[in-house]
Amino acid sequence: MAHILAIANQKGGVGKTTTAINLACALAQTGRRVLLVDCDPQGNASSGLGLRISEPDKTLHRVLLEENGAPPLHRPLDELSLWMIPANPSLAATEWKLTATPGSETVLASRLKPLDERFHFMILDCPPSLGLLTVNTLCAAHSVLIPLQCEYFAMEGLSLLLDTIRKIKLRWNPSLAIRGILLTMFDRRNNLSHQVATEIRKHLGARVFETLIPRNVRLSESPSHGLPVMLYDRHCAGSRAYAALAHEILQKGADRA
Ligand SMILES: Nc1ncnc2c1ncn2[C@@H]1O[C@H](COP(=O)(O)OP(=O)(O)OP(=O)(O)O)[C@@H](O)[C@H]1O
Ligand SMILES: [Mg+2]
Fold this sequence. Notes:
It is a single chain. By secondary structure, this protein is α/β, with parallel strands linked by helices. It has a single domain (3-251), classed as P-loop containing nucleotide triphosphate hydrolases (Rossmann fold, 3-Layer(aba) Sandwich). The chain is built from eleven helices and seven strands. The chain has helices at 16-29, 44-48, 60-65, 91-99, 107-112, 132-140, 158-171, 191-204, 217-221, 229-232, 237-251, and strands spanning 3-7, 34-38, 82-85, 121-125, 143-149, 177-186, 208-214. A seven-stranded parallel sheet has the order 3-2-4-1-5-6-7, with helices on both faces. Strand 5, helix 7 and strand 6 (177-186) form a beta-alpha-beta unit. The mean pLDDT is 95.
């Protein structure tokens, strides 16, 4: 049975997509079969792995709006056991159409079910909003990983996200767990980064992953080459950090396979 992990934070630019891509690939490098689902109309996870798909029929659109038919699985990189359901900007219109569907919150959950036996992990990259697409990912997920950028306003909006998670647990997905808070873009030469990390650990304690994701230029360069960081520069600090995160997640038992 696949473990479904949503990467969510309605705050923009905190490292959701960077984490979705590189965690998915780091897990695939351990031999797990991983499905990365791009649930964001920006399509950054797709283009970051070199997939620019214009036909809606080959994207998440088909999964959400067409009940029948095989989901459009792509395999962006031959060397990894990683599959992907990509997205493109038409997903914004799909979200609107989905609103008119009865039970619209749980459509993704039911469409991912038939894929359950084929993967060890499904990683869902969320858009920067708490709209219907994010709600769908939280209804489908076993757990959620929340990236927080090591900046002054990091925790702003966190209570709204935690409240949304609570409501989704009550109404649709009682076993949804918070897998962890991930500190991203940590700059060890910057005092503020240290202060924010300390403050967040003080408030959220054991919920925070031990692994810290450093600010690393390789992480921002690799998507423009259509590669995860570990295939772009396998020795850089970003590669090591996401390998450590995958290891921490496997150790803490998110691997239900
Ligand atoms: N650890 C890092 N070091 C350096 N740059 C990073 C790091 N993590 C992310 N970035 C860069 O920061 C920007 C935002 O990251 P990313 O796209 O992953 O955030 P996001 O939360 O998915 O954004 P959005 O809310 O728009 O979907 C990108 O340009 C990315 O390359
Ligand atoms: Mg993103």
